[in-house]
Design brief:
The protein has 325 residues and is α/β, with parallel strands linked by helices. The chain contains ten helices and 13 strands. It is globular and about 55 Å long.
Length: 325
C-alpha cells in the first residue's frame, strides 16, 4: 500500500513511517521541517518538503501517486505557546488540516488516521478518561485539535470520508535508533534527560499545588512503539468501518515528581529541580483509558513500566548527543 505521512520527519511520524516501511509499504513523507529533522524521516521513504497549508502542492502530490491513505502528524504541539499565540495554532493545526482534507477529497483518497490529543478533554470529570467523556479543552492546542475532529466528523457524515482519531498525551521512549529531540525542547522526559547529560542545570516543575497526591500534574506516558502500532491497527480497521475514535495510553498516571524519580533511578543522576509557577491551561490529571482499542482492535502495550520507557529514551539520548557533540 502507499501512504502519505504528514509530519513524517518528526518523532512519532518518523516512527510510524519506519514501521510501515518494515511491513513493505510505500511511504512518502511530507514535512516543512519547522520542528522536524530530515534525519528523522526514514531513508527508504520518499521525502517532500512543503507546507500543509499549500493546497496546490498537496493536490500535485495526490495527482502524481494514488495513495491508499494518509497518516496525519503535522502540527504545532506546545500547549504553553498556544496560550500566547492562539492564532498560530488555529492556522497551523486546524485550517491547514482542512486544506489536507480538501486535497484528499479532490483526489478520492478516503482514509485518514489523525494524530489527536487527550488535551481535547480538558480537566476531566473522572479518570481514566473514556472516549465519551465531555470535550472541554483548557488550552488552545487542545481546542485546535478538537476543531479538526469536528471537521472530520462532518466530512464523514456528508462525504463518507473514513477517519480514525487517536487521542494520546505524553509519548516517550525510543526504538531502532529513533528517539525524541525537539528544538527547542519542551517535553518532560527529554528535558530531564538533558539534565542528566549536563545539557541543562535543572528541571523546572511548573506548579506544586495541583489537587494530586504530591501537588504536581499527573500524566499518562505511552511508548512510541506501542503508539505506532495503534496507528497501523486503526488504519486497517478503516477498511471495515468509517469512523473510529480511540484513546491510547498506559492506563495509569505518573506525577511530574514520579517521572523525575524514575529518571534518577535509570540515569543515576541527582537531577536538581527548580519549582516555578503553574503554566496557564495545564489540567491537573490526564490519564487515558485504552480499554476500547484493546477490546475492539486487540491492541496491546509492550511497555507498561515507566522505568522501561525512560530507560529506552535514556539509551538513545546518550547515543544521540554523543554523535551531535
Amino acid at each position: 500500500m502507499r501512504f502519505l505521512i504528514t509530519g513524517g520527519a518528526g518523532y512519532i511520524g518518523g516512527t510510524v513511517a519506519e514501521l510501515l516501511l518494515n511491513k513493505e509499504h510505500e511511504v512518502t513523507v511530507y514535512d516543512n521541517l519547522c520542528h522536524g529533522h530530515r534525519s528523522m524521516a526514514p531513508e527508504r521513504a520518499e521525502f517532500v518538503e512543503g507546507e500543509l497549508a499549500d493546497g496546490s502542492k498537496l493536490e500535485k502530490i495526490f495527482s502524481l501517486k494514488k495513495f491508499d491513505g494518509v497518516m496525519h502528524f503535522a502540527a504545532l504541539i506546545e500547549a504553553g505557546e498556544s496560550m500566547r499565540n492562539p492564532e498560530l495554532y488555529f492556522r497551523n493545526n486546524s485550517a491547514a488540516t482542512l486544506t489536507l482534507i480538501e486535497a484528499m477529497l479532490a483526489k478520492s483518497v478516503n482514509r485518514l488516521v489523525f494524530s489527536s490529543t487527550a488535551a481535547v478533554y480538558g480537566e476531566p470529570e473522572s479518570t481514566p478518561i473514556k472516549e465519551d467523556a465531555p470535550l472541554r479543552p483548557t488550552n488552545v492546542y487542545g481546542e485546535s485539535k478538537l476543531l479538526v475532529e469536528q471537521m472530520l466528523n462532518w466530512v464523514n457524515r456528508i462525504h463518507g470520508f473514513r477517519y480514525a482519531s487517536l487521542r494520546y498525551f505524553n509519548v516517550a521512549g525510543a526504538i531502532d535508533g529513533r528517539g525524541e529531540a525537539h528544538e527547542p525542547e519542551s517535553h518532560l522526559i527529554p528535558l530531564i534527560l538533558d539534565v542528566a547529560l549536563g545539557r541543562r542545570k535543572n528541571i523546572k516543575v511548573f506548579g506544586q499545588d495541583y489537587p494530586t497526591h504530591d501537588g504536581t500534574c499527573i500524566r499518562d506516558y505511552i511508548h512510541v512503539q506501542d503508539l505506532a502500532q495503534a496507528h497501523l491497527l486503526a488504519f486497517d480497521e478503516l477498511g471495515k468501518r468509517d469512523r473510529l475514535i480511540y484513546n491510547i495510553g498506559n492506563g495509569r498516571g505518573f506525577s511530574i515528581r514520579e517521572v523525575i524519580e524514575s529518571a534518577r533511578r535509570v540515569t543515576g543522576h541527582p537531577i536538581p529541580v527548580e519549582e516555578v509557577e503553574r503554566r496557564p491551561g495545564d489540567p491537573a490529571v490526564l490519564i487515558a483509558s485504552s480499554e476500547k482499542i484493546e477490546r475492539e482492535l486487540g491492541w496491546k502495550r509492550k511497555f507498561n513500566s515507566l522505568d522501561d520507557i525512560v530507560a529506552s529514551a535514556w539509551k538513545w539520548h546518550q547515543q544521540h548527543y554523543q554523535k551531535t557533540a
